[in-house]
Design a protein that fits this description.
With 232 residues, this protein is α/β, with parallel strands linked by helices. It has one domain (7-230): Alpha-Beta Complex (Spore Coat Polysaccharide Biosynthesis Protein SpsA, Chain A). 28% of the residues lie in helices and 25% in strands. The protein has 6 helices and 11 strands. It has helices at residues 36-45, 84-95, 117-127, 173-185, 193-199, 219-230, and strands at 7-13, 30-31, 34-35, 50-57, 75-79, 104-107, 133-139, 144-147, 153-157, 163-172, 205-208. The chain has a 7-stranded mixed β-sheet with strand order 5-4-1-6-10-7-11, sandwiched between helices. A two-stranded antiparallel sheet has the order 2-3. A two-stranded antiparallel ribbon has the order 8-9. Helix 4 crosses helix 5. The longest helix has 13 residues, at 173-185. The chain is globular, with a radius of gyration of 18 Å. 37% of the residues are buried.
Length: 232
């Protein structure tokens, strides 16, 4: 491994967001005067340790070209795939032309615009020398119930070692590419990068982050995200 690997951001932004019920994908909805995706990209564009970015958008996306994105760092735009894992893999393949296999890749949801600088710094610092990599997460604080098929409680789940997985999820370019390719070859549509690494036999490290790093999935989340952004 190189002594000082680079850090690259990958933003899968090809989702259509049908659950939001809007006239456009949720990453292009307005949030505090800009789009959700612009806020998300800004976190990485303005971070001094991020070398460049790869953004995966839909093949027929008419919205990205309207964004106000300015950066002097490498910014690759690639076509996304049917699922998130396909979009991420397309972006990783595109990065191979500029990044080394031992460089770090931080995969971050396009609709998590409230990632704080402190959380991002903590992730970079904690994982820079890790053999595997890891992800931002927060311990589960709610009481968890398991139900039967009829919607009745069968038992209460011990939450002492349970975490909510966030992004960014940070792994080496080469290792993550192999893990995703292996999962997809076996028909496993993994929902996050850590799952692919787990399938490959690795144990990602959990780095505690702020609960404010929310994922926008409903109209109510937009109002909450605007509040969090206003607190910065």
């Amino acid at each position: 491994m190189t002594a000082s690997p680079a850090f690259w951001a990958v933003i899968p932004a090809a989702g259509v967001g049908r659950r939001m019920g809007a006239d456009r994908p949720k990453q292009y909805l307005e949030l505090a005067g800009r789009t959700v995706l612009e806020h998300t990209l800004d976190v990485f564009i303005h971070h001094p340790r991020i070398t460049g970015l790869a953004v995966a958008i839909g093949a027929d996306d008419p919205f990205y070209e309207t964004l106000r994105v300015r950066t002097d760092r490498p910014l690759l735009i690639v076509h996304g795939g049917e699922e998130r894992c396909h979009s991420v893999l397309n972006a990783l393949h595109a990065l191979k032309g500029q990044a080394a296999a031992d460089d770090w890749v931080l995969v971050h949801d396009a609709v998590r615009p409230c990632l704080g600088r402190d959380d991002l710094d903590r992730l970079l610092d904690r994982l820079a020398d890790d053999l595997v990599g890891g992800l931002l997460a927060t311990p589960v604080s709610d009481t968890l119930k398991r139900s039967d098929d009829g919607g009745r409680v069968t038992d209460t789940v011990d939450r002492s070692h349970l975490w909510r997985a966030f992004t960014p999820q940070m792994f080496r370019l080469g290792m993550l590419t192999k893990a995703l390719e292996s999962a997809l070859s076996e028909g496993a549509l993994v929902t996050d990068e850590a799952s692919a690494m787990e399938r490959a036999g690795h144990a990602p490290r959990l780095v505690e982050g702020s609960p404010a790093n929310i994922k926008i999935t409903s109209p109510a989340d937009l109002a909450l995200a605007e509040f969090f952004l206003g607190q910065r």
